[in-house]
Amino acid sequence: MTDRLNSFFQSEADIAWEPTEPGVKRKIMAYGEDLMIVRVVFEAGAVGKAHQHPHRQASYVESGVFDVTIDGRTQRLRAGDTFFVPADLVHGVTAIEAGQLIDSFTPMRSEFL
Length: 113
Fold this sequence. Notes:
The chain is mainly beta. The protein has strands at 18-21, 24-32, 35-42, 47-51, 56-70, 73-78, 82-85, 91-106.
């Protein structure tokens, strides 16, 4: 991935998909040192395995249906819904239907680069 840290504009068509887990891929859409936006696409049945990180995360369900688990609590979310993950809480998702999430992280996830 090219360094886009100092770039103001990105074209979605110019950003390559990165596979992450079976049935899951992502695009790093925009980022700076304190914020990152990531598009994540899930096939039906794909799992974003439970994990934790020191970043705060706010996510928007752009399409599809997901079971989202945060700190042991699970809720089914649909297009238009959102969720927030405080730093260091264990969380993960399962795509009930194929769909996309728009994830925002603060600070940015430098390990994604």
